[in-house]
Amino acid sequence: MLQQLEIDRGIMHSGVWLSLMTLTALTVLMAAQRPEVFTLMVHHGRILTALNSSVSLACELSPLFNAEPLEVRWYRSGDFDKPALLYRDHKIQAAPVDPRYKGRVSLTGGLDRGNVSLRLERVTLEDGGEYVCRVSNAQWYEKASVFLTVKVLGGTPVVSVAEARGGGGRVNVTCSSEGWSPYPTLTWRNKEGTEIRNGREVLNTPDPQGLVRISSWMLYAPSDTDWLSCTVSLSEEEKKESRILPRAPTEGFVRVSTSKKMANGNDKTESTETPEEETALAGECGTQTAKETTTQCVPKEWGEVKRFKVDITLDPKPGHPYLQVSPNRKKVYYKTSKEPNVSTAPHVLSEDKFSSGQIYWEVVVRNGGIFNSFLGEKQSWYVGVATDTATLTTGVVPLTPQNGFWVFTFKKEKGYCVSDDPQMPVSGNESPSVLSDVSADILTTLGVFLDCDRQMISFYDADSKVHLYSLFNVVSSNTFFAVFSPGLRDTCPLTVK
């Protein structure tokens, strides 16, 4: 028995000794085979990673040998002298390095095995692009590029429909979504799931942050039961979809005459159809040109809309140091026009919140008479509806559908727009979604009508009782708020009537 134990111990010691000898031999071999010339092996094609994730940019020596005595430099294309990471003299150097990568980069380990891959933590949108892996010794250097793309899933597509110019039973359907990276794919499908390619146009527009806004429009001749879907996607698993029934927004709508301010200053009401024609056209949505008085599409008769008027009060704590709400919670304005440089207007929500039914309120957006002379003219404002997702945002954010805001806005240098990015001008017949021409000289009180159940928002010139614009099929929400912004550094107030 003792003899057998001694044999086993001898075999075990022999195995350990053999393993140590093998490892030593491999180390010596790799050191002995350290070539003067080598190449780098990297990932071919783009490396995709999500925002705020961690990613490894692979780079290895070929042939494999110990890279510890070498210099390893990872840098952005064109930034050789400001690398993301620099390894030299057997350690990672603290300088010179790009401060954007401080505390976020490391080598994955395995330098002794020829692995010089870069590990990048907490990926930002700015991290996307070309990276260069450069390895050098006293006699030779080699470099190779790795391309990183940061994936960002954009917002739910916003789909709208308007009657096509020239009629013929066709409609102009538009779809847009913002905040994507990389360039997404937009697909139209009918109710059978068949992709629609004919007659469509698709436009990709990068923004200053490097994200992409995609939009598409097409002419479509639907039947009464047709619906369309617009899907924006990065892959089969990463996509956002919206659907619309092209004739659904017109249900319950009526053809009405519009009021137009004439050159002599008098208001004149005109109708381009006989009563029989108006009855036949009831339920269809029309557009109007900037120079002609035509009928337009409104959710309800003006008298019906007024019946839903509610008393709105503002949240007394707007959450912005330069924004002031009056003691009666009916006015909001900037405390000073000398606020430090900012590019996005702050806002305040209503204390009231709505989850069902129909609601209407009015906001004075332009003071007249002596008040206008004393306070000056407003330079900008934003008025509309915010969904419950807007309450999840912190700080000042753009008032766009992606952030949960659906607003009608005025900027003196641009005129009137509806919420989108870039914003859709409400200035006549240049856009298929435009329903009315708006004059800055006559819009004093803006009316807002919200149908929570149908997810529909309409805006009115409350003084002349004219429908200005409607947003259909807005993102479904359990809770809605009224939203108000007096603009940027504008001390003239917005007033809830």
Provide a count of the helices: 4
Shape: elongated
Percent range for helical residues? 10-25%
CATH topology of the largest domain: Jelly Rolls
Domain count: 3
Give a verbal description of the structure.
This protein is mainly beta. It has three domains: 39-151, Sandwich (Immunoglobulin-like), CATH 2.60.40.10; 158-246, Immunoglobulin-like; 305-496, Jelly Rolls (Sandwich). The protein is 10% helix and 38% strand. It has four helices and 36 strands. The strands form nine sheets. It has a seven-stranded antiparallel beta sheet with strand order 24-25-36-27-32-33-34. It has a six-stranded mixed beta sheet with strand order 2-11-10-5-6-7, with no helix packed on it. Strand 30 and strand 31 form a beta hairpin. The longest helix has 31 residues, at 2-32.
Present the secondary structure layout.
Blueprint: H1 2-32, E1 39-42, E2 46-50, E3 55-57, E4 59-62, E5 71-76, E6 85-88, E7 91-92, E8 105-107, E9 118-120, E10 129-136, E11 141-151, E12 158-163, E13 171-180, E14 185-189, E15 195-196, E16 200-206, E17 212-220, E18 228-233, E19 239-244, E20 254-256, E21 258-261, E22 267-270, H2 275-281, E23 296-298, H3 302-306, E24 323-325, E25 331-334, E26 348-354, E27 358-364, H4 369-375, E28 380-387, E29 405-411, E30 415-418, E31 424-425, E32 445-451, E33 456-461, E34 466-471, E35 480-485, E36 494-496
Parallel strand pairs: 2-11
Antiparallel strand pairs: 1-4, 3-9, 5-6, 5-10, 6-7, 8-9, 10-11, 12-13, 13-17, 14-15, 14-18, 16-17, 18-19, 20-23, 21-22, 24-25, 25-36, 26-35, 27-32, 27-36, 28-29, 28-35, 29-30, 30-31, 32-33, 33-34
